[in-house]
Amino acid sequence: MVQNVASVMAELEPEDFHLLSGVEQGMRFSEYVAREKLTEFSRLTTEDVDYRLDRCADRGLVERKTIQYEGFKLTFEGYDTLALHTFAERDTIEGVGSPLGVGKESDVYEAQSYKPVALKYHREGYTNFREVMKEREYTADRDHVSWLYTARKAAEREYDALETLYPAVSVPQPIDTNRHAIVMEKIDGVELSRTKLESKQVLPILDLVLDEMETAYREGYVHADMSEYNVFVTNEGVVVFDWPQAVPTDHENARELLTRDVENIMSYFERKYPQEISDVDRDAVADTLATDAFESIRAFVD
After folding, report:
1. Which of 61, 84, 88 has the alpha carbon at shortest distance from 74?
2. Could you give the strand order of the β-sheet that contains 231-233, starting from the edge strand earlier in sequence?
């Protein structure tokens, strides 16, 4: 797990952020940035670069490596620091609290603004960068791709989807984004995977999930990663979250991805609630979602 950098922010000085920004700029061209290039990228003196590198390295914000040259790169904590600094300057958030969720591709924290919000840092490329480069189409046309770019593009993709879908689709309201981070509405609910629905709730909740998928398709997006781990059950209904892999409906694989989403969510319900639902024709359900003709899963249940 990447460490929460909120406690470090108060210790940093403006020149530290200049240094971190300089490392960020240099990583556009190489994984490790040569020390001598950091005066140009950060617009600091050589002496100040040396001093700031030590300060940032001591706090785990940059990583040092000697190869053919002495080079430096941002850690994810360093990248988090830059995003958090920008949010603070914009008055988007006032503080960061405890973790809400930690996964392989993102860390989510509670944050304080004019109301409690969620702060999501994308981590795509951090643990398995080579595999992400192969799979993510937004990295396909670049010779040098850092994990900073991969994580930032994931955040951009998710934020664009949320902006398009909200409020027509029940998704977290997007508030702000910078680099690899998104500030969004904090949802008070329970993950579908952790709920135990009563018998009479099963089909209505499934209907709600499929309704949101249908509306999303009508509004121009397929989630492309639907599962019981990406749905909150709330007092008002359901909220679909985690949209970094969303694709527009004019994408050549959109229809196939919609069917896969239906397969994933139907498989979960049939596995967990076999007495309530089984052997539903996934293709038929996906067809009704794509043509805006879905009414209820009951039409497909024997």
Report:
1. 61
2. 190-191, 231-233, 238-240
Tell me if residue 177 falls in helix, strand or coil.
Answer: strand
Integer Cα distance of 257 and 283 in angstroms: 11
Pairing of strands 231-233, 221-222: unpaired
Sheet containing 181-185: order of strands: 95-102, 106-112, 116-122, 181-185, 174-178
Q: pLDDT tens across 12-31, in order?
A: 999 999 999 999 999 999 99
Average pLDDT over residues 167-193: 97
Q: How far apart are the first and last CA of the chain?
A: 46
Distance CA 245, CA 155 (A): 10
**Percent of the chain that is helix, strand, coil (3-state, to 5):** 45, 20, 35
Residue type (1 letter), 181: A
In 119-191, where does DSSP find H-type helix? 129-135, 147-165
116-122/181-185 β-pairing: antiparallel
Instruction: Return the SS3 of 300.
Output: helix
Cα–Cα distance measured from residue 58 to residue 35, given in angstroms and rounded to the nearest whole number: 16
Active-site residue list? 225
Kind of pairing, strands 190-191 and 181-185? Answer: unpaired
- State the DSSP H helix or E strand holding residue 231, giving kind and residue range, or none if neither: strand 231-233
pLDDT for 67:
83
pLDDT category of residue 130 using cuts at 50, 70 and 90: very low
Phi, psi of 211 (to 5 degrees): -60, -45
Does an H or E element contain 56, and which? helix 46-58
Q: What is the pLDDT of residue 146?
A: 78
Statement: residue 182 has pLDDT above 50: yes
Both tokens assigned to 29: 């061209």
CA distance 87 to 89: 5
